[in-house]
Amino acid sequence: MIVIDQTSLQVVEDHLLHLCRGDHCDNMKRLQRFECHCSVSLAEEEFLGLVFLQNREVARIAPPGCNRTLRVVAQRAIDLGQPKLSGNWDLAGNLRQMREKLLSGSIYQEALVICEARGDGEERYGQWYLQDGSHRALAFATLMLLLDARYEPQKAYCSMSREIYQRLSRP
């Protein structure tokens, strides 16, 4: 992970508001726990190692107690044939939209929002939790695993402890 620039929680919040997500309060509640915020560039393995969310809607691809890295969740989605998990999680529809974007150029324009995976037991699955952008990230990871897309370094806003930030920002 390469730190691009130190930023503020307000910049991250403005980004989330720009995206018009319905889970803004939940996102901010989690991100406010961290002292440092920055923009980063993710290498391919870091991207595929992000911890995917876990709730009832996505339990078929992210079962409780199982590996929830983006790579493994995307592979489960492939193995299940891209099912419609809920009204909000139409995996085939999301994949179709991402393929359409791929035809017109880069499939990743908006930054993800990630944070240190600590405090909710998420750290047992990986170091970084995918806080916002799960639909896009899952579709992109799926296209990569299907060999329909090549990885492009992903920009993300990242919230973390001061200790982790200092470790990452050292030259």
Structure, explained:
It is a single chain. The protein has 171 residues and is of the alpha+beta class. The chain contains 7 helices and 5 strands. It has helices at residues 9-19, 24-31, 44-48, 70-79, 91-103, 134-145, 162-169; strands spanning 2-7, 36-42, 112-116, 128-132, 154-160. Helix 4 (70-79) crosses helix 6.
How is this fold's topology laid out?
Blueprint: E1 2-7, H1 9-19, H2 24-31, E2 36-42, H3 44-48, H4 70-79, H5 91-103, E3 112-116, E4 128-132, H6 134-145, E5 154-160, H7 162-169
Helix pairs in contact: 4-6, 5-6
Q: Gap between N and C termini, in Å?
A: 12 Å
- Report the sheet-strand fraction: 15-25%
Structural class: alpha+beta
Strand count, sense and closure of the main sheet?
A: 5 strands, mixed
Unreliable spans: none
Rg for CA atoms: 15 Å
Shape: globular
The order of strands across the largest sheet is 1-2-5-3-4
Q: Helicity level, as a percent range?
A: 25-40%
Number of helices: 7
H/E element string?
A: EHHEHHHEEHEH
